[in-house]
What does this fold into?
Amino acid sequence: MNAAISFTGGSNTDKEGVVGTLALNAGDVRLRASTTTPTVLGGPTLDDLSLSLSLEKPGSFIIDYDVPNRDVRFQFMNRVNVLNKQLNLTYTHTRAVNKTALDATLLIDSANKISGSYGFGSGDCKIKYSYVQGALRTFEPCYDLAKNSWDISVSQRVLDGDVIRAYYRTSSKVLGLELLWQGLNRDGRFKITASMNLAEGLKMPKLSAESTWNFEV
It folds into this structure.
């Protein structure tokens, strides 16, 4: 079994809390249980806790069940060849909100790929191009057709797989910087984010931190 514990907090996140995950490999499938505890003043109550159960076959399907909300989310993955290029498809449907989405990624070569997502009913549609330069630097412009806006990010690998990422979202005028660090023993993951809304003028950046520890049970 594999277990992970993560914490998210800071001044620019609405997902502050602690998440615990326990995964059990059973042949070709994986069983996973996750619980989320928000960090609220005075301590969380039972109503604040969330629990989800998952059945997953990597590269094939994921079925998530939200226990408190009695909601089910289905996700199916497939891989096809188009003109000798690999096309990855992901179909997602959430029952309670009746939300359906299709994601596709076309791998042109080791350095170039094009991905897109479309939300049925909502009309949300995004197209993203990714270019990897020298296996160290990644450029990712993304166009949101629904909002008629661009998101641009640049990532740089440093040291042994750690990443520094800068991004700008034209729709919200948010400029941000992220540091993704795997830790000294490579058994965890840490993310620190600093962001500011340029529409509000030059102010102190908002900070958030997320840490995850993985260990065998």
